[in-house]
């Protein structure tokens, strides 16, 4: 009977030791994981610092090369120097107006729900031009067939069958074009009012 309580005590002790050992291993594993994470963060920060140093040195080197090239080009005189300065003066407005035009085209495409043409449409429109380039003698036959296909009655019927939505769209586009033309004229004249002509005196 004394063996049973002793074996129970040994069993309890072994379980307690196993629990403590597992707890110690878990704590050392979590400590190792945190250390590995810290070293990983340090390595990443060092790598990013090195990368920023490389980028800053490269950008400074590129800017030095660019400034030296600009200085060398700016020292050129005569016609070539004037031509270079003229081209340099055209670059900023060209970039600006190209961005404005791109944004305007994007707004028009989005507003009118437009889509680029498919390759089949491109091919259907380009095929006659390719055929003419291959066989230039076919121009006369294509011109005669085109003049025969133009029918004034069909053109008149399409004008008569225009619906109100198409008329509204055409009127809006006409108003926009007229407005842009008028603003361009005002900018060109530097006046809001038209040109003043000479007063005609009757003799």
TrEMBL record:
Keywords: ATP synthesis, CF(0), Hydrogen ion transport, Ion transport, Membrane, Mitochondrion, Transport. GO terms for cellular component: mitochondrial membrane; proton-transporting ATP synthase complex. It is found in: Mitochondrion membrane. Residues 28-42 have a biased composition (Polar residues). One of its GO terms (molecular function) is proton transmembrane transporter activity. Residues 28-50 are annotated as: Disordered. One of its GO terms (biological process) is proton motive force-driven ATP synthesis. Belongs to the ATPase g subunit family. This is ATP synthase subunit G atp20. It comes from Vermiconidia calcicola.
């Amino acid at each position: 009977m004394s063996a049973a309580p002793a074996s129970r005590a040994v069993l309890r002790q072994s379980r307690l030791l196993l629990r403590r050992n597992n707890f110690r291993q878990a704590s050392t594993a979590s400590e190792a994981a945190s250390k590995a994470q810290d070293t990983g963060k340090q390595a990443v920060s060092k790598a990013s610092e090195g990368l920023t140093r490389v980028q800053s040195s490269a950008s400074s080197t590129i800017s030095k090369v660019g400034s030296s090239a600009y200085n060398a080009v700016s020292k050129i005189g005569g016609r070539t120097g004037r031509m270079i300065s003229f081209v340099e003066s055209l670059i900023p407005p060209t970039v600006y107006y190209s961005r404005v035009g791109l944004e305007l085209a994007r707004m028009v495409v989005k507003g009118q729900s437009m889509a680029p043409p498919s390759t089949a449409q491109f091919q259907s429109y380009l095929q006659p031009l390719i055929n003419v380039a291959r066989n230039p003698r076919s121009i006369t036959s294509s011109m005669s067939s085109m003049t025969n296909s133009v029918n004034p009655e069909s053109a008149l019927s399409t004008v008569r069958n225009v619906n109100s939505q198409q008329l509204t769209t055409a009127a809006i586009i006409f108003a926009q074009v007229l407005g842009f033309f008028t603003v361009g004229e005002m900018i060109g004249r530097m006046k809001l009012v038209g040109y003043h002509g000479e007063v005609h005196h009757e003799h």
